C-alpha cells in the first residue's frame, strides 16, 4: 500500500472542510460589505435630501458615514486574500523559477502575517486608549476600530486555510502565521533594537522596495515599511500608526471614491453604458476604422459618468472587442484600442485618480476636474486620428454608413439620461452646489433609478453581485489610501519633500528641464506601480518642488495623472493591458506590441499638456472671468 493512501480521504475531507469554511465566510462578509455600502449610500443621500430639502443636516450623519466606510475597508481586506485581489507588483516573481517563486511567496505571507499582528495588537491598544463618547451617535469613540481585530483574525483564517483550499502546501499558511507570532511575541524588542541605528527614511525606503519587489501587496509593503521606520526613529507608536491608517482612509472627501466606483458598476450592470456606445456609433461609426473610433469615443463619454479606468477597460473588452474582431480587426489591436481608450476615465471628470490626487495634495476637486477636460479631449482626438491612419494602412473600412441627423438625435435622446449625469456632477461641484461626496451619492441613486425603473436591466441577484464587487474594490482602494498615511507621515516628518524641493533648483532652475525630470520619474513609477499607489507616494514628494519652481499645482496634478495612465499601458505592470488580456484571453505581449503606436501618440499629447499649461487650466481661468 502507498504510504500516503490512507491520508488521501482525510486530505480531501480537510480540503472540503476548509473550502466550506471559506465559502461561508465569503458569503457572510459579502452580505456585510453589501449592507454597509448600501447603508453608506442611504445615509449620505438622506443627508443630502435633508440639507437641500429642509435646510438642515442629520446630526451624526457624517460620523456614521465615516464609520460605515471604515467597516467596508476593514472587512474587505480579508476577502481579498482568497482571490489574490490585493494590488502587487509581480515583475520579479514571475520571471523566477517555481522554487524561487515559492520561497518569495512564503516571505510575502510572513510580511502580511507579521504586519497583521502589528495592526491587531496596536489596534487593541488604541481602543483601550481612546476614551469618551461620540455625542451625535451615542457610541464610544473606539467603535469604528472594532472591525480591526475582526479583520485581522479573519485574515489569519484566510491565510491559514488557503493551502487546504488550494490542495497544496496545506500547512504552510499555519506555519507562517505561527512563525510571525513567535517573532512578534519573543523577539519584538530585538527587532526594535536592530533598526535603532538606521535612518528612518532609508529603513522605510529599502524595506518598502524589497517587500514590493518580492510581490508583497502594495498596502502591506507600505505598512510594514512604516512600522520598520518607526522602529528606527521612534516617531509614531504602533497605535498611532493604526490611527493614521484609519483616519487617512476615511476622510469625508474619500467617501466619494466608493460612490463613483459603485455608480460606474451600476451603469455597466444596468446596461446604461450601452446607450453611450450607441450614441458614439451614430456619431463616428462611419469613419475609417469605425468600431475602433466608437471604442475611443465611448470611453470618453463613459468617463463623464464613471471615473474608473479599470471598469472601462473591463466593460469595453466584454462589449466592444468581440464586435471588433467579428468585423475584421485583429484581437491584439482591438484590445490595444480598448486599453488606450480606458486611460480617459481617469483624466476626464469625474476622475477617481484626480479625486485621490486632490485629497493627497490638498487641491480643489472642482478645479482639477475642470483641468482634466481639455487634456482628455486632446488625447481622445489624437488617438482617433491615429486609428484613422492605421485603418488606411491596414484596410479597415467604415463599419456603417453615415447616420442621418434623425438617427443621431434619436441616439442622443436615448443616451441623454446618462449624459445628463456628467453635467450634474461636474457643474454641481464646480459651482459649489454639491460636494464631490454628495455628487457621488447622487450618481449612485440616479444610476440605480435608471437601471431599475427606466431600463429595467438587472435582477436582484445581479444587483447584489454588482454592489458586492464594488464594495470590495472600494475597500482595497481605501486600505491603500490608509496604508499610505503613516508612510507619508514619515516622509514629511523627516523633511523629505522639503529636501527635494530645495535640492532640485540646485540641479537646474530651468522649469522645462524640471518638468521633464518629473515626467521621467512619473513614467517610471507608472510602469511599476498601481496608479493610486503612485499618486499617494509621489504627490507629497514632487508637488512641493514643482510649486516652488513656479508650476501651477492644478496643471501639475493633471500631468501626474496623464503620466500614470500612460504607465497603465506600459510593461511590466500595464494594468489596463492586463485587464483586456485577461477578459479577452489575448496574449498580453501581443497587446503590448499593438499599443506601441498609441504610446507614441499619448507621449506627444503628454508633452503638449506638460508644456502648454493652458490646455489644463484654460477652462478654469475662463470660468473665473465670467
Radius of gyration: 25 Å
Largest sheet: 2 strands, antiparallel
Low-confidence stretches: 1-9
Query: Helix amount, in percent?
Result: over 70%
Number of helices: 29
Average pLDDT score: 83
Beta-sheet strand percentage? Answer: under 5%
Distance between the termini: 88 Å
Structural account:
With 626 residues, the chain is mainly alpha-helical. Helix content is 78%, strand content 1%. Strands 1-2 form a two-stranded antiparallel ribbon. Helix 1 packs antiparallel against helix 2, helix 4 packs across helix 10 and helix 8 runs antiparallel to helix 9. Mean pLDDT is 83; it is low at 1-9.
How are the secondary structure elements laid out?
Elements: H1 7-54, H2 61-82, H3 91-94, H4 98-129, E1 133-134, E2 139-140, H5 147-166, H6 172-186, H7 188-195, H8 200-213, H9 218-233, H10 238-249, H11 256-269, H12 272-284, H13 290-303, H14 309-319, H15 321-326, H16 331-341, H17 352-361, H18 365-371, H19 373-394, H20 405-430, H21 436-454, H22 460-493, H23 496-507, H24 511-528, H25 531-548, H26 553-567, H27 575-584, H28 588-611, H29 614-625
Antiparallel strand pairs: 1-2
Question: How would you summarize this macromolecular structure in one to three sentences?
Answer:
With 626 residues, this protein is mainly alpha-helical. The protein has 29 helices and two strands.
List keywords for this structure.
disordered N terminus; mainly alpha; 29 helices; 626 residues; two-stranded antiparallel ribbon; globular
